[in-house]
Amino acid sequence: MNNNAAFPHLLAPLDLGFTTLANRVLMGSMHTGLEEEKGGFEKLAAFYQARAKGGVGLIVTGGISPNARGRLTPFGSELSKFWQVGKHKKITEAVHQYPTKICLQLLHAGRYAYHPFSVSASKVKSPINPFTPSAMSVRQIKNTIKDFAYSAKLAKRAGYDGVEIMGSEGYLINQFSCVKVNKRTDEWGGSIENRMRLALEIIRAVRASAGDDFIIIFRLSMLDLVEGGNSWQDVVTMAKGVEGAGATLINTGIGWHEARVPTISTSVPRAAFTWITERMKKELSLPLVTTNRINTPEVAEEILSTGQADMVSMARPFLADENFVAKAAANKSDEINTCIGCNQACLDHVFKQKRASCLVNPVACYETELTFATANTKKKIAVVGAGPAGLAFSVYAAQRGHKVEIFDRASEIGGQFNYAKQIPGKEEFYETLRYFNKQISLLNIGLNLNQEQSAQQLAAAGFDEIVLATGIVPRALDIKGIEHEKVKSYIQVLRDKEPVGKRVAIIGAGGIGFDVAEYLVEEESLTTQPEKWLQAWGVDKDYQENGGLLAKTIEEKPVRDIYLLQRKTSKVGAGLGKTTGWIHRATLQKNGVKMLPGVTYLEVNEQGLVISIDGKQQTLAVDNIIVCAGQESERGLYLALKAQGVEAHLIGGANVAAELDAKRAIRQAAELAAKI
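The structure corresponding to this sequence follows.
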């Protein structure tokens, strides 16, 4: 397989001595929520099996705790009792029908545990958790080490090829290894040799309990990105200790969950942190895995061929496309449904205790429920609108054997994605449109652009079904002077590229308002410039300071003076994604954007925008006012068809236009295609 011309390094086997991995691709750990659902292990088995069938070399499961106190949530998964082995066997047996290996991740949450029984190295509360942990006694520490060892033994009994010990991202082992949380004065605190003792004792105990023919991956925090994090020398000392204690592989961990540096969102440059793994390779001889924002086989091949790492870990790309490796091996990387790093259906769901899935692939984690069997009756279907909903429906319906024709009045596919892809940090949306274009061609879907359809045309064309994905129209505002030439819609700014002045008021602080603000303050996108991006977020590649943070970040002079306004009195940006909203707010704050809630809009005039906050009137002296105040479903065609007695299906923004929600639109499209 490693003779593959396109990706020879990615597809080369990796000899671990007692076993060999089929290729250099590790599917990184992701909690899906199925771990706790009733009947969830059958669904998990189908989820992991699809990725094994798709050719991935090594899978790491979502985090499972070795004991009750280490659970992430009160009812979080743990593997500590013999009766739990049977559930896990369902997963390993499903995966082992293919040449893929699978490791169970052992994760003790420490002070990140969302329950009152949490423990840590010391009694130091996390800023992202309401619960204060109690400091572990020496007896508790020793029992926890035994619990890790017993869990690993049970994992082996359940058929896992190994375990990944979670020592990064700010969880328990990481809490012990850094003085940020570890304030102990006994043999488990103080020097790095003492602080890393928990990690090494766990590795030795797991090795003794599970034997030599068992993969032990240690996830090492190479870059803490928090104050009180480790120095580079501390990290190297710990890495050498981990190697000596008997680990098989070291996986790269980047940043604590509470770090104020984005590490995996779409605005992070691709492979932004591989330099740290490359640096560690000079210190160790065992294989190293690199990670974070690697989402194409081309990027992965480049990392491996230049010797930055021995394996690449990709997590969310396997939510987006279970056949990622198989497509790369067949030299069909242009057919991969690429992860866009949006976090909307994966991490945002998990943090709300909902099942994870994927915005661009709603089948992820629903493999047994959302299926696309070949249709018994092949239908001729018209789809009006080539935005995310129309495109997704067309592809799934065509896969079932239906004959699909897409119509759109625009000159390109994509709908609202064509605006989103221009926002700095959202360049990955180009990949989704590339994927859909390729699928349209492969599935022989009829594509009719620059064509507006009337109800008469559709009714007369003899379609068996009509699906309307006609999207939205921006909501009109009733404000005195709203017709003034200073006023523009977001479509005029993003689509028509109309010039915008230096002083701007944006009406509406939802997702579109934030997008427009970022578009106007970031003259250049840092997502395609890793060095500048690292500097802007205060990451020190020279590692002069502990935790890898720059002593001070460079202040840039804002390019525009912007007000981001909302009627609601709640915090501006409160409705943004749970894991990405803070990044958008931080970006705008750095650029001096003034975010004002509780605004009443009174008038647009020559001077600017007259507003009132708490009954106090003021005039914002601005050159332009950009309206991003929501949208309404475009249903004219639907109503015209109905008037002629023709039934049609409404999906996407045409169905519900609350916030532009591609995740809901694509899932709704898939569910309709599965049953039409």
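The radius of gyration is 26 Å.
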